[in-house]
Amino acid sequence: MENNQKLVHAFHEALGIDSNLIKDNLTYQSIPEWDSISHMILISQLEEDFNVSIETDDVIDLSSFKKAREILIKLGINF
Amino acid sequence: MIIDDLISLPQFSLHQNEKDKTMLELMKTLHDHHVTNSVAYKEICKRVFKNEVNFNSIEDLPFIPVSAFKNHQLLSVEDGDIFKVLTSSGTTGQSVSKIYLDKDTARLQSVALSKIIAHVVGPHRLPMLVIDSKAVYANKSSFSARGAGILGIAPFGKDHTYVLNENFEPDEAVLKNFLEKYNGQRIFIFGFTFMVWQFLQKANFDKKYDLSNAILMHSGGWKKLVEIAVDNQTFRQQLKEKFNLKNIYNYYGMVEQVGSVFMENEKGYLHAPNFADVIIRNPIDFSVQPIGEPGLIQVLSVLPKSYPGHSLLTEDIGVLEGIDDSPEGWKGKYFRILGRAKKAELRGCSDTFNK
After folding, report:
1. CATH number for the B102-252 domain, one of 3.30.1360, 2.60.40, 2.40.160, 3.40.50?
2. Domain membership flag for residue A33
3. Would you place residue B84 in the very low, low, confident or very high pLDDT band (cuts 50, 70, 90)?
4. pLDDT digits 0-9 by tens, B59-72
């Protein structure tokens, strides 16, 4: 699976939302499904799917779909 | 210096004289902001502090009792900008405090808290054992203080494992599996103080467990433990005896100032981070107490912008232990909590504020 698709899939799995909603402008706490509880589920999902380890600062910084991609790029994932 | 600078500096690094200057400027700005945006705050200041505008030190700033959040709707944002309402647990028969957060204040709180916790835990996320049940999150729209407290700490952990089941009973199998899975690794344990005592220290486990690789962080206050004569020293001692658990960090914070927490050092004293401070006040006339003299604890924080909670008089009694001279090098003020103020000590205070 291409990485962008993989990222959409991770959000879809962790937050339980329709893939159509998952766009760059999707931000943390902007929808009821992405709250502080599901945020930690999302982080684990990303770590598992991309085989990366996300540090605390990035957990807090990961505040949008766009930001998630930026953080993964920083961790060596190509988009 | 702006708030973000104070937060991003290594914590516990500012000397008191430098901090006094920085805090004063930021606190004055916050005071003006709240006077402009919160009618209730303005009223309290006018009635109690006669609307003084010249503050020469942070000690001159108005402070409001934490109980004011129970009796007044205290917020400095438009209803439409409210993004989350935190509530205090509140004992039976009392009304609950309501704390209104907008996105900006909520963000500052989480970043600030993370800097303090990282100072102790480090930047890497550790396997995290929570001495609580997932059932604390039952009501999503209005989090309990405990649920919010756990979620504030969650970014420091991974594989979050809750030791208590849905009925709030300890599940030894969960504990056992977690410890086997992470055998020999550093782990992070978090819980509220009385939960840790009741469901970890006092739990009847079949086996003996070694937690010498664990960092325990706990918070929530000593009220319930003081009732059964357990103080901080006993708490630390007994956890060490039963689990060989030595890395124990208590922190003092409240729902009215989420993000600004006072962290315990190895000696058991609480330290103010760079962006918050503490003042001990005489319970009779509210004058400032010197080092060694017990009094009511006033907490100051530069974080609260959506509600006027930047300067609060708590109902706790504490004593200042020193300034800038802590043995492990943490700067600023450090103090100890002695317990809750007695009703009589608070009466004068609430008569003044809650007319």
Report:
1. 3.40.50
2. yes
3. confident
4. 999 999 998 998 88
Q: Does A47 touch chain B (CB under 8 A)?
A: yes
pLDDT of residue B221: 81
Nearest-Cα distance to chain B for A47, in Å, is 10
Cα angle B41, B349, B143 (rounded to 5 degrees) comes to 60
Give Rg (Cα) of chain A.
11
Q: With a CB-CB cutoff of 8 Å, which residues 203-242 of chain B face chain A? A: none
The H-assigned helical ranges of B154-284 are: 172-181, 193-196, 223-227, 232-243
Tell me which of 3.90.950.10, 3.40.50.720, 3.10.129.10, 2.30.38.10 is the CATH number of domain B1-78+262-355. 2.30.38.10
Q: Say whether A56 and B114 touch across the interface (CB within 8 A).
A: yes
Please report residues of A whose CB lies closer than 8 A to that of B103: 29
Tell me if A79 is assigned to some domain: no
Optimal mutation site among B109, B114, B153, interface A, most CBs of chain A within 10 A: B114
Query: Average pLDDT, stretch B130-134?
Result: 94
pTM of the model: 0.84
CA gap B77, B247 in Å, rounded: 41
In the prediction, which pLDDT does B327 show? 85
